[in-house]
């Protein structure tokens, strides 16, 4: 599972990335500091299943299990990115494999579309979300529409259906066939002759493809600055996606303080505890400010945005494969060794595919650890299910 951070320059993508992964990437107030994509591991929160079974697993933190997801931070997009402006093409291509996008926007409106600082309240973040969407739509349109006449002729000759043609076109972008089919039906193109697809129709298709195949949430960053909360209210009225107030800088400060042993903080919690006696006045002041902010916006929002991307936008659930149904362990006795994210409506065989291709090939059946019952082949997994997969 791959989450892609998208947004213009200087909105705080790299700060968000550094906080989520606790990697020290470059955070600077100038354009294109992130030329190579940063690839790291972030975690989403899930209520650990260990207490349901009275077992103890080493990865549980106070009842919370942190489930890994890959996170990609690419350099900022500028208007016209799909045309190659500001290396936009390259950055967009880095995002091909993303399952979900986290649109990072400057909720305070203090940066212009090029990422230059213009002061809080100068720019409308609703426009920012719109421009990001447009760039993604036109990027998809470009991929879709390249040499379309030729493609349409060939497809008619071979009597290929629209779903196969579009799915083939988008190979490498991680689109599921059923997502493509759904988008085609939604815009009424599923049975329309491919010769009759004009630019306007294809743009509508690109937009719908983005919505069904590349879902997103909005991380409304810099929520500590003036104007941000009123802008967030407006954004919530104007767009369908979840809009989460975020202060990435605060999360980064907390994770650093945590690694220095100054505080005890579980990412996503609404507060933290100071655990050291000797704290400088400046540091204590900074922490007090962060605490106040967290009370106002509900945590720092970084963890909340990651969780919303996986649970709300992607529709993910967390499931645990085990080998030993009594100890809930793997072969070597490690309790609840892995937690995986799968899409809602996944079956145990889909889980097997994520664990290992070989396990899916040799899949025989699965057993639910709670009921000890054998699961039917079309059984739909639920969030926090623990299953043993039997292969032959
Ligand atoms: N006020 C405020 N500034 C932030 C926040 N997060 C990042 N910044 C600042 O925004 C600027 C750009 O951050 P960076 O992460 O490099 O942005 P990127 O270009 O989108 O990767 C830096 O000066 C950060 O310190 C935040 O939550 N609040
Ligand atoms: Mg950056």
Keyphrases for this structure?
14 helices; 5-stranded mixed beta sheet; 392 residues; 7-stranded mixed beta sheet; alpha/beta; binds magnesium ion; binds guanosine-5'-diphosphate; Ubiquitin-like (UB roll)
Structure at a glance:
The protein has helices at 13-21, 50-53, 88-94, 125-145, 148-157, 162-169, 177-186, 199-213, 228-238, 248-259, 281-297, 302-313, 348-355, 357-361; strands at residues 2-6, 38-47, 60-61, 64-73, 100-106, 216-221, 243-245, 263-264, 273-274, 316-322, 340-343, 363-368, 374-375, 385-391.
Explain what the structure shows.
- By secondary structure, this protein is of the alpha/beta class.
- The protein has a domain at 317-391: Beta-grasp domain (Ubiquitin-like (UB roll), Roll).
- The chain is 38% helix and 19% strand.
- It contains 14 helices and 14 strands.
- It has helices at 13-21, 50-53, 88-94, 125-145, 148-157, 162-169, 177-186, 199-213, 228-238, 248-259, 281-297, 302-313, 348-355, 357-361, and strands at 2-6, 38-47, 60-61, 64-73, 100-106, 216-221, 243-245, 263-264, 273-274, 316-322, 340-343, 363-368, 374-375, 385-391.
- The strands form three sheets. Strands 1, 2, 3, 4, 5, 6 and 7 form a seven-stranded mixed sheet that branches. A five-stranded mixed sheet has the order 11-10-14-12-13.
- α4 packs across α8 (199-213) and α7 crosses α8.
- The chain is flat, with a radius of gyration of 23 Å.
- The protein starts with a strand and ends with a strand.
- The model is unreliable at 23-33 (pLDDT under 50).
- Bound molecules: guanosine-5'-diphosphate and magnesium ion.
- Magnesium ion (MG) is lined by residues 13-14, 33-34.
- Magnesium ion is lined by residues 13-14, 33-34.
């Amino acid at each position: 599972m791959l989450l892609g951070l998208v947004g213009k320059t200087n909105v705080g993508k790299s700060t968000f990335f550094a906080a989520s992964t606790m990697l020290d990437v470059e955070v600077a107030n100038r354009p294109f500091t992130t030329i190579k994509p940063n690839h790291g591991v972030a975690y989403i929160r899930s209520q650990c299943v260990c207490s349901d079974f009275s077992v103890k697993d080493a990865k549980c933190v106070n009842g919370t299990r942190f489930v890994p997801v890959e996170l990609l931070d690419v350099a900022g997009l500028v208007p016209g990115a799909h045309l190659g402006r500001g290396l936009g093409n390259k950055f967009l291509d880095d995002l091909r494999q993303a399952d979900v996008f986290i649109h990072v926007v400057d909720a305070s409106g203090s940066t212009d579309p090029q990422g230059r600082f213009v002061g809080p309240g100068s720019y409308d973040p609703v426009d920012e979300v719109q421009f990001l969407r447009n760039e993604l739509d036109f990027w998809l349109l470009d991929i879709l529409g390249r040499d379309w006449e030729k493609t349409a002729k060939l497809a008619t000759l071979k009597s290929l259906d629209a779903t196969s043609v579009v799915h083939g076109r988008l190979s490498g972008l991680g689109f599921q066939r059923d997502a493509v089919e759904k988008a085609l039906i939604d815009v009424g193109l599923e049975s329309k002759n491919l010769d009759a697809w004009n630019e306007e129709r294809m743009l509508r298709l690109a937009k719908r493809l983005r919505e069904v195949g590349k879902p997103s949430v909005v991380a409304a960053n810099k929520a500590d600055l003036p104007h941000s909360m009123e802008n967030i209210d407006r954004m919530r009225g104007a767009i369908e996606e979840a809009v989460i107030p975020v202060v990435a800088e605060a999360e980064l400060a907390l994770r650093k303080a945590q690694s220095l042993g100054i505080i005890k903080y579980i990412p996503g919690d609404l507060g933290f505890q100071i655990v050291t006696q000797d704290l400088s006045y400046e540091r204590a002041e900074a922490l007090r400010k962060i605490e106040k902010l967290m009370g106002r916006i509900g945590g720092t929002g970084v963890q909340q945005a990651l969780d919303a991307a996986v649970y709300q936008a992607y529709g993910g659930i967390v499931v645990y494969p085990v080998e030993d149904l009594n100890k809930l362990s793997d072969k070597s006795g490690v309790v609840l060794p892995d937690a995986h994210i799968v899409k809602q409506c996944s079956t145990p065989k889909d889980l097997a595919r994520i664990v290992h291709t070989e396990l899916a090939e040799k899949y025989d059946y699965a057993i639910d650890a709670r009921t000890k019952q054998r699961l039917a082949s079309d059984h739909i997994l639920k969030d926090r299910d623990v299953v043993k997969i039997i292969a032959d």
